[in-house]
């Protein structure tokens, strides 16, 4: 198994948009797959936000992580955000999510950020094992979620 983490390439946008739509449509039904494709097109240049990194196994897309300046407009004090971390179902449990998160943290440090935030519905214990802490309970479009943060210092 040869896994690489690299910046998003346009050839992966269609698949990522479909994955993201299936996984998170319930949190914001105003965003459809076409909107997701359009947004992801702006994520290929990872020198600034927004940015997306993808995990590839022998050239096949198996996961991704997005980085954005804002994930929820009413919490401007939290920025930047790790957003839409996704690993293909048949690839879960292999440490790919952790590789993606570590690459995201490295990139945010490189860009001069000292903290990173995320929203999770049910993966709080997973993130806590990696050093993330709950910042607050939050309602995202009437769905209870946790906002979590981690220091990058």
TrEMBL record:
Entry GO CC: cytoplasm
Sequence ranges assigned to domain N-acetyltransferase in this UniProt record: 3-153
Keywords: Transferase
Recorded coiled-coil stretches: none
A GO term for molecular function: acetyl-CoA binding
PANTHER family (UniProt xref): N-ACETYLTRANSFERASE 6 (PTHR13538), N-ALPHA-ACETYLTRANSFERASE 80 (PTHR13538:SF4)
Listed name of the protein: GCN5-like N-acetyltransferase
